[in-house]
């Protein structure tokens, strides 16, 4: 060792200690990427179809992180607002979509996109040839239109779609020419034109990883695999420790001497097995007078803290609060609203991803049901759920606002009832809303206090009454003139040609 140090020299020793990691007991510097690189899984877990299928089946944690954001995104359904369809048409459209399970198909395909990294919503119609492009103009109320959710593994990519080297077209019967790259999918050996598949991508992957995933996205489990492994491993440890928490200790006279021969070992095994059987089924045991029996119960400290920290790590990687993922309510001075707001951001991102897909489904249903696609706005229900007192306060505020507009003569009675009916404040059809009866508006500027307020209040009330009478007379005159014009038009002789 001395000769080696003399050969290296003092300068070499100093350089080796301070500049060469791993020599002379020196550990790696914290700025080195080796620790970071060694903890990376270089094979995408998204490609392990079997493990993803059975993991989704076996672990409730996996189902929760996949399903909850999608189910919360579609909670309450969709709201379609348009001026080109009336209330009856919108109700008919919602009923038609509900009968065909369109929202369930949208939910399912988004779940598979989160689990497998991608999927597709297949458009099934009356067309027997699925290789030709899909034409929405052929849809009518009697035609078949169904949406089939599929994950990325059910949509097998053809060779031409992966390599994209064949640009030669082919004819199918008397139809138009279809290129091989326009039919990129095989759904259980059935070729599908790209216009018949609404492709859904999961979490987007970097360019290098995207090539390995054949253009699909990543599974949501990729970013939380380390924390889920820690959580599952800790559960397995707890399961093993449960059997060791209570130990039975038998003190048998002559035990060591009996182990000297095989016959003695067999006798001891039978004796212990008999005692265990009697203890399990009879709640009693039998021992020799010189034997002893004792029980020891072990306690494990610190396991609860590790369990809590594991749950926090899982929630941090997934981006979901404990209240949603584990059902753990907020404790202490925290109300949990901040965590729910962060989760709502995640759900809003899910809604943003599904909105183009939902619009395409609504467009096809409108084309099938009404023969055209109206201009509409697609909305989701609010994520925040109000309590009963808060909801009642909001409804009362809407009713008061509508009545104030009526009192200011900005709304008619029929318009007020229509507004209240849209807000679901009226649960029965009314004569005013149907136009069978009218309600007189209150006299502006006249209140109950004006009856005993002196000459000024009386003059104010008289002026308001006069203005109201003038408006009524003008309205009656206009109605009379309109009826007179209609009668004269009816009896007016037609001009001879």
Question: What is the strand and helix layout of this fold?
Answer:
Elements: H1 2-19, H2 34-38, H3 49-58, H4 60-73, E1 78-81, H5 87-99, H6 102-116, E2 118-124, E3 146-151, E4 155-157, H7 159-163, E5 169-171, E6 177-179, E7 185-187, E8 190-192, E9 197-201, H8 207-212, H9 225-244, E10 246-251, H10 255-258, H11 262-281, E11 292-297, H12 303-318, H13 322-325, H14 337-370, E12 377-380, H15 388-407, H16 413-422, H17 431-434, H18 455-491
Antiparallel strand pairs: 1-12, 2-3, 2-9, 4-7, 5-6, 7-8, 10-11
Fraction in beta strands: 5-15%
Number of strands: 12
**Class of secondary structure makeup:** mainly alpha
Tally of contiguous helical segments: 18
Order of helices and strands: HHHHEHHEEEHEEEEEHHEHHEHHHEHHHH
Largest sheet: 3 strands, antiparallel
Give the helix proportion (percent range): 40-55%
CA-CA gap between termini: 130 Å
Name the overall outline. elongated
The largest beta-sheet arranges its strands as 3-2-9
pLDDT average, as an integer? 79
Contiguous uncertain segments of 5+ residues: 160-178
Quickly list its features.
497 residues; mainly alpha; three-stranded antiparallel β-sheet; 18 helices; 51% helix; elongated
Word description of this protein:
- By secondary structure, the chain is mostly helical.
- 51% of the residues lie in helices and 11% in strands.
- The protein has helices spanning 2-19, 34-38, 49-58, 60-73, 87-99, 102-116, 159-163, 207-212, 225-244, 255-258, 262-281, 303-318, 322-325, 337-370, 388-407, 413-422, 431-434, 455-491, and strands at residues 78-81, 118-124, 146-151, 155-157, 169-171, 177-179, 185-187, 190-192, 197-201, 246-251, 292-297, 377-380.
- Strands 3-2-9 form a three-stranded antiparallel β-sheet, covered by helices on one side. A three-stranded antiparallel β-sheet has the order 4-7-8. A two-stranded antiparallel ribbon has the order 1-12.
- α6 packs across α14 and α9 (225-244) runs antiparallel to α12 (303-318).
- Mean pLDDT is 79; it is low at 160-178.
């Amino acid at each position: 060792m001395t000769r080696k140090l003399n050969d290296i020299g003092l300068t070499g020793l100093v350089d080796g200690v301070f500049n060469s990691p791993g020599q002379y007991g020196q550990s790696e510097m914290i700025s080195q990427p080796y620790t970071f690189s060694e903890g990376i899984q270089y094979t995408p877990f998204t490609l392990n179809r079997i493990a993803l299928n059975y993991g989704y089946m076996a672990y409730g944690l996996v189902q929760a992180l996949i399903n909850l954001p999608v189910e919360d995104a579609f909670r309450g359904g969709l709201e379609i607002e348009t001026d080109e369809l009336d209330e009856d048409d919108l109700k008919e459209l919602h009923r038609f979509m509900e009968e065909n399970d369109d929202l369930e198909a949208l939910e399912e395909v988004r779940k598979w996109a989160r689990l497998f990294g991608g999927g597709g919503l297949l458009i099934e119609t009356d067309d027997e040839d699925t290789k030709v492009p899909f034409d929405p103009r052929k849809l009518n109320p009697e035609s078949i239109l169904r949406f089939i959710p599929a994950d990325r593994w059910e949509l097998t990519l053809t060779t031409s779609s992966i390599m994209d080297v064949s640009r030669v077209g082919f004819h199918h019967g008397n139809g138009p020419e279809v290129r091989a790259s326009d039919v990129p999918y095989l759904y259980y050996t059935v070729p599908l034109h790209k216009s018949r598949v609404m492709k859904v991508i999961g979490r987007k992957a970097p360019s290098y990883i995207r090539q390995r995933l054949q253009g699909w996205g990543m599974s949501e489990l990729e970013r939380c695999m380390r924390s889920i492994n820690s959580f599952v491993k800790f559960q397995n440890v707890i399961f093993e420790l449960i059997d060791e928490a209570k130990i039975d200790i038998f003190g048998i006279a002559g035990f060591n001497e009996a182990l000297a021969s095989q016959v003695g070992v067999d006798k001891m095994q039978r004796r212990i097995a008999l005692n265990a059987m009697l203890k399990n089924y009879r709640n009693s045991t039998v021992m020799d007078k010189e034997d002893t029996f004792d029980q020891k119960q072990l306690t494990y400290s610190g396991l609860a803290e590790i369990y809590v920290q594991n749950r926090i790590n899982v929630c941090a990687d997934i981006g979901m609060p404990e209240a949603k993922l584990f059902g753990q309510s907020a404790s202490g001075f925290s109300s949990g609203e901040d965590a729910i707001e962060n989760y709502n951001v995640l759900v809003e991102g899910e809604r943003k991803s599904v909105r183009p897909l939902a619009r395409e489904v609504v467009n096809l249903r409108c084309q099938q049901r009404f023969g055209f696609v109206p201009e509409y706005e697609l909305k989701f229900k609010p994520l925040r759920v109000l309590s009963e007192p808060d909801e009642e306060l909001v409804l009362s505020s809407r009713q008061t606002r509508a009545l104030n507009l009526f009192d200011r003569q900005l709304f008619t009675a029929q318009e007020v009832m229509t507004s209240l009916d849209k807000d679901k404040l009226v649960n029965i059809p009314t004569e005013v809303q149907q136009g069978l009866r009218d309600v007189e508006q209150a006299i502006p500027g006249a209140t109950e206090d004006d009856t005993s307020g002196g000459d000024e209040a009386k003059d104010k009330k008289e002026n308001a009454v006069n203005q109201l009478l003038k408006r009524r007379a003008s309205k009656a005159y206009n109605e009379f003139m309109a009826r007179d014009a209609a009668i004269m038009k009816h009896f007016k002789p037609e001009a001879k040609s």
